[in-house]
Amino acid sequence: MKRALCIATASALLLALAACGKQDSTSSTPAQNAPAASAGDAAGSPTTGELTPGVLYCPGAAEGGQVLIRAMRLDGNLAGTAEGKINNKPLSDKDIRFIFELDEWVSVYLDTDESDGLTARLVPHQTDTAAYTQSFYEMASEDLPHLDLVKPEEADGEWGSFYLNPDTGNAGDYDLMIAKDGKPTAVVCLRFYNQNELSSKSDEELLQLMNAQ
Length: 213
Fold this sequence. Notes:
Elements: H1 2-27, H2 39-43, E1 69-76, E2 99-101, E3 106-112, E4 118-124, H3 134-138, E5 146-148, E6 160-162, E7 172-180, E8 183-193, H4 203-211
Parallel strand pairs: 2-8
Antiparallel strand pairs: 1-3, 3-6, 4-5, 4-7, 7-8
């Protein structure tokens, strides 16, 4: 009788210890859960995959590379007023105007310490940021806009301007790539519309169009 009681007690103790060990192993493995996204991951420039229109992406920054272009502003001469809602906004890395018409002059403003060696090219939109290499930049079509970016005398002056000719480009998404000595250092996705498709819209309508993207 005593022997049976001891066996039963030992079995119950073993079961309790096993259950306790199982509970501990489940609750002590937070590394298996997906990490929460940081504020920088949610709001900053992408490091892989698809670009967000109007958000500045700096190739190599995720690997600790130097960020040469801190912020950008793009103004157009056909759509939007100069009141600071569409054009003449503060330079930004996350709120850059990205909608323009074909044949609309786009003025480029930069926040950078660089004074020379900067160029820009408009290229067809790429779905993966891994495409933004020096060889890709150098092989870009000469039919699309390309320009030297010249540091202005005024601190807030224009670095250069371009337009997308409807004879060589269609409405759609493009990437404006900025390079230092031929190596891509900043990219922003832009969206071009057909002629007269935006110029009749108010600033509020243009903002709604950008916010809907």
